[in-house]
Amino acid sequence: MKRNIYILIVPIVLLFCMADISLGWSLQEGRLMTRWAYEVDPQNTLPEYPRPQMVRNDWMNLNGVWEMQFGDEGDPVPAGQTLSGDILVPFPVESAISGVMHHNDRLWYRREFQVPSEWDDQRVLLHFGAVDWESGVYVNGNSVGVHKGGYDPFSFDVTPYLNSTGPQELIVRVFDPTDDGGYARGKQTLYPGGIMYTPCTGIWQTVWLEPVPQISIEELKLVPDIDRELLKVTGFVSQTVPGLTVEATAYDNGTVAGSVSGAANDELSLTMNNPKLWSPDNPFLYDLTVVLKQGDTVIDQVDSYFGMRKISVEEVDGTNRLMLNNEYVFQMGPLDQGYWPDGIYTAPTDDALRYDLEMTKAFGFNMTRKHIKVEPARWYYWADKLGLMVWQDMPSVNSYTGNPQPIDRAQFKTELQRMVQSYHNHPSIIMWVIFNEYQGMHDTKQLCEMVKSMDPSRLVNSNSGDNSNHDHTIGDVFDIHNYPPPAVPHSDIQATACGEYGGIGMAVTGHMYDENSSWGYGSNVQSGEELAARYDSYTQMLASFNTNDGLSAAVYTQITDVEIEVNGLMTYDRAVIKADPDLIKVSNKQYTRTYEDILPTSQQTPQSWRYTTSAPANDWYTTAFDDSGWNEGPGGFGTSMTPGAVVGTEWSTSDIWLRRNFEVGTLTAEDMEKLVWRIHHDEDVEVYINGVLAFSAAGYTTTYMPLQVSETAKSALIENGINTIAVHCHQTGGGQYIDVGMALETVVIPEDNCGAWGFSPADLNKDCSVDLEDMTIFAADWMECSMPDQVGCINHVNP
């Protein structure tokens, strides 16, 4: 069985080769670096076309080494001056890849560019993917405009400011208040710690130039309607003049699938007969060409793509469910915060940007929650192509640390509108999340209604982590957070989701942002196998919630470690995949489990235990201890209002001690591999087998969980004899409950999935039952590695 999975790091010698390239820039060495940092080319930085849904052939990438210097309020524009330092655009000034790795709230950027002669007689647009937070743009000493907002793309028509010949000077002034302004900032803070991270200041997405005709296509709006088998297409133009028409043609692998023409700025209906539907299992994308004509003359053309899919909430068997393409699909995804140890908000390369999504798919997720950050358009492009549903959060105002400021409500509304408008066409995005855990929450009903009116084709989640008594009539989803195990809310009018849970901590020495201050939710695990087992136990809870309580979606925290949080499925540097993706994938399929009792719980039939609520002698857990003076009663033990409790004996004190004898008979080697605990504890628990500490856990569960039995516990078992189990449970507040059992677990896989997901048919019996520990993992995208203590590595495969 695989343990931690490592990826070979590019030799550090590349760093020294790169340090001499391009002006004075050099890659800095941060606390932690990814392998992609050493692939960054300052002369060809993030060269990919930045806007895949509206493509023109001619463009100029302005990424690369720029002049830079720190500034102060009131500084004059440094036109015609050489600035004091250099920075690699588009990496935040705090990042190692920027070459600066220092924070300042005011910056100046400067560079020169040449306009190709072929662009004569066209308008020249200057595009910024994103700049955090306020940016003033100057061309040849002239103010072009000011933009406020750290997450949305913007552009200026710089044609009037260009010199007729020669170099053009571009200067960008940046101001970023971070904590000290009442603006959207997500997880950024000047005081990193806990769940808040390093700030991101300045240009952090691609800067580029684009020539366009005097009258051009300015924006596309694409809305699929699978029920009517059509795509609604609107081509907005830069100027409205008589005789403008738009022609849109859809292609299925080069073959025309439909076309429509009509007036510019009007919504057109492009018929798609028997459309191929986009889904995570089949992320089919149609190509789209949109042509702008004046009379019979073509004056502009852009290429795009779209996916035919529908997302909705419908009642299924009396329960409101999240529906994809009119079918119920349980949405299972990780929290994805989009942070990088060396680039902060900016992934080092497009391969790096894509990698997290590839691994999300490799872990068997069909969804991901982009957590209070907005990504470059290429991130959503990869989600579209790879097939991941996306919950898109609006970045929060007034997060957990720092100096909360009065919220600029008008600015927040403007940025929310821009987010929806800018990323509307991506089929992967299926939900807009307005607030997270009440952070900066205001005008909730009005903002939800605004977003729904802008985009009725998607779902709106008013507040992910809505655990208090909020108005659950707002939005499409009632979404709670619960750590570490998941939980389920109940609603008669909304679909329900657990928008965050898990956070299983696993520290990996040498791959931590801070070796001394790292943490996860609940108790940490020590190995990839333990992480996979704990993850699986939570997923089985979700399966029960899905079947019995109407839960439609869950979000696991999280895909990678982030700064001092070590609760990722991968380390922050993406060098170690902590748990075998195939095991996580099997868990995410939520296959049926069957259990053959070795030590029955009281979940179905009350079991008799000896118990006491008074502190016993120190040897209370040993086999020789005399418990004849203890009380005797049926399990489980606790209070009736505790979630998932089946109370046989009331227990309401802070502590309880339990003992019981049992026999296991003869256990084969195969049986030993199938052994799991069946345990429901609220709160901290210790379990001893024949005097040996066999299991312990902090926190609580909300249902019976199957948990892997350790080798220590297995070794303590006496076959064909009497065994003693001793249990201590400690409660600090709220509900309380304890019950423990042991069983043999079998996974039942539907026959139509036999041989899938890396299972060898030889390992499966007639009904496709298989023990997880005995599965043969042979996925084609894994390869063996020669590095010591490493079992498998990712062999990168392009989509």
UniProtKB/TrEMBL annotation:
Gene assigned in the entry: ebgA
Class of enzymatic activity (EC top level): hydrolase
Domain Glycosyl hydrolases family 2 sugar binding, first and last residues per copy: 89-187
Domain Glycoside hydrolase family 2 catalytic: 351-468
Domain Glycoside hydrolase family 2 immunoglobulin-like beta-sandwich, residue spans: 262-309
Biological processes per GO annotation: carbohydrate metabolic process
Similarity remark: Belongs to the glycosyl hydrolase 2 family.
Keyword Magnesium part of the UniProt annotation: no
Record-level Gene Ontology MF annotations: beta-galactosidase activity
Domain of life: Bacteria
Protein name: Evolved beta-galactosidase subunit alpha
InterPro entries: Beta-gal/glucu_dom_sf, Galactose-bd-like_sf, GH, GH2_Domain-Containing, Glyco_hydro_2_cat, Glyco_hydro_2_N, Ig-like_fold, Ig-like_GH2
UniProt keyword annotations, A-Z: Glycosidase, Hydrolase
EC number from the UniProt entry: 3.2.1.23
Record Pfam families: Glyco_hydro_2 (PF00703), Glyco_hydro_2_C (PF02836), Glyco_hydro_2_N (PF02837)
